[in-house]
Specification:
about 190 residues; alpha/beta; TIM Barrel; seven-stranded parallel beta sheet; 8 helices
């Protein structure tokens, strides 16, 4: 089982590392801006304390600019996984970056069919956007409902595809707001290799 924390707050990451719950980190430009920090500096700092993948998201929406941003982000540290949206341009970017052996996290995945497209494009990681679905009460059983639909679909229909894991939402969102203790998380199963 792998846990990827969804934060750009280095203090939070440092607090969680001793628990063994930090196998990787996902960030996005909004999380980094919220802390008022420089994007490149923050990504480098996170990569220096986390040995697993650190997802850094592109802001572009077109293929050429996503490629430029993705190559730049990947150059910041060896453990950067470039996060791209699940759009036609994002999937094309995913395919090209993977051909260059750059880790890619495809985000904004809402359905099993979309997850299959991301896996076919070569995604290293697929991030279902479960937090947003939960916020809108589109999932009656929360994170595990989407996971139970995505995992079997990927395993049954695409065992030959290279996607290795699903990053399921935010560990930080799973902490009780008053006690800051962890709520139970659904199981995350490793896919592929």
């Amino acid at each position: 089982m792998k846990f990827f924390v969804d934060t750009a707050d280095i203090k939070q990451i440092e607090e969680l590392i001793p628990t063994g719950f930090v196998n990787g980190v996902t960030t996005n430009p909004s999380l980094i801006a919220k802390n008022g920090d420089d994007m490149a500096k923050t990504i480098k700092a996170i990569c220096s304390i986390v040995s697993g993948p650190v997802s850094a998201e592109v802001t572009a929406t077109d293929y050429d600019t996503m490629m430029q941003e993705g190559e730049y982000l990947a150059s910041l540290a060896k453990n950067v996984a470039v996060k791209v949206p699940l759009t036609p341009s994002g999937l094309r970017t995913c395919k090209t970056l993977r051909e260059r052996e750059i880790l890619v996290n495809v985000t904004l995945c809402f359905t099993a069919a979309q997850a299959l497209l991301a896996a076919k494009a070569g995604a290293s990681f697929i991030s279902p956007f479960v937090g947003r679905l939960d916020d809108r009460r589109l999932l009656c059983r929360g994170h595990s409902a989407l996971a139970h639909r995505l995992l079997p679909a990927l395993q049954a229909r695409a065992p030959f595809l290279p996607s290795r894991a699903l990053a399921l939402g935010s560990l930080m969102r799973q902490m009780h707001p008053q006690t800051r203790r962890l709520r139970p998380l659904p199981p995350v199963r490793r896919l592929g290799r």
